[in-house]
Amino acid sequence: MTQPTTIRRVRDPQRTALSLAADGVPVLPLRRGKMPFGNCPACAGNACGGRPNMKAPGPCHCPDVCHAWAAATTDPDVITSPAWAAAWRRAVCVGYHPGGAGLTVVDLDDATAVAWARATLPATRTVATTRGEHWIYRGTMASRNAVWPGVDIKSAMAYARYLGLGTGPLTDLPDTVRALAAAKPPTTPATMPAVVAPMGDGACPHRTPAYLERGVEMAVDRISEARAQVHATVYRVFLAVLSRHGRCGCLTDVHIARLFAAAQAKGETVRHCMDAWANARSRLGL
Question: Less CB within 10 Å around the terminal CB: N or C of the chain?
Answer without folding.
Answer: C
